Amino acid sequence: MDLSQLNILNIQITPYKAYGNITYRLNIVYEKEIEETKPQTDRALAIDYGISNFATIVIENQPTSYIVDGKGIQSILRKYLKKLAKWQKKRDNLQNKRLSTSRVDKILHRIQKRINNLIRDFSHKVSNLIVELAKRYNVSTIVIGKLQESKNKESKLSSIIDQMLSLLPHGRVSKQIEYKAREYGIKVVLVDESYTSGVDSLKYVAVNKENYTPEARKHRGLFKSVLGFVNADVNGARKILKKFKKSFHDYITGLRQTVRIRVFGNLASSPKSVQVYGQIGVARCGDHLSGIR
């Protein structure tokens, strides 16, 4: 980015304090003129947030659905959180013996900073991807299901895993989508996702308690619909779309093909079936999404 071409309003130096150590981040605030644009259709894109499937995306009248893999960021977070716990234990032992913790504090600060940077990087890449999809398919509205607390809670999980799940940046991604989409005249709407996981999207029924059948969700990955099994998260995303657009009902949206997208490549713990697309979400110009398979 050529700073000489920007209308810079101010420059902020923000301190980050943790474990008695300080690092600084440089923020450049600049003004950008946005041309008023309006999509040519009333097409909607719906997002269903999850954990292993961080975000499931369906686009109205488009047969392909997209799933942003959450296992990659979980793998990296798990590694960092284990390190954090290990060094925190050493710090506690030193404190109990009344010895200096300055060296350990620097290590803990560095690990915490890396976690923060990881989450920030992941959030921008995912939000850029979603806005790119909305632009490509001339979407006028992005509909986001407000994540329920129960999705980030699983029974019999270790404290490290529970902490990791609480770090997944669903809220941050939603906010970034909102301000990035504004540049292209795309509205962002939040809807309550209650009952969306247990209502058949292939039935022309309302999303409510009366039509809620959680037993139709098999093995957390498949949903038994009236026409056969469909991806459970795709079914949820379709019902989020239905909550926003009451008249929506088809047998096309997101049902023909599911494209899985991994933001972080070359992770041994990531499923081999997930394809890597190295530049995904990095740039919001050109035709970068053509590389997705």
What can you tell me about this protein's structure?
With 293 residues, the chain is an alpha/beta fold. The protein has one domain (34-71, 116-291). It contains five helices and twelve strands. The strands form three sheets. The protein has a seven-stranded mixed beta sheet with strand order 7-6-3-4-5-11-12, with helices on both faces. A three-stranded antiparallel beta sheet has the order 8-9-10. Helix 1 (71-96) packs antiparallel against helix 2 (102-136), helix 1 (71-96) crosses helix 3 and helix 2 (102-136) crosses helix 4. The protein starts with 6 loop residues before the first strand and ends in a 17-residue tail after the last strand. The model is unreliable at 149-157 and 267-293 (pLDDT under 50).
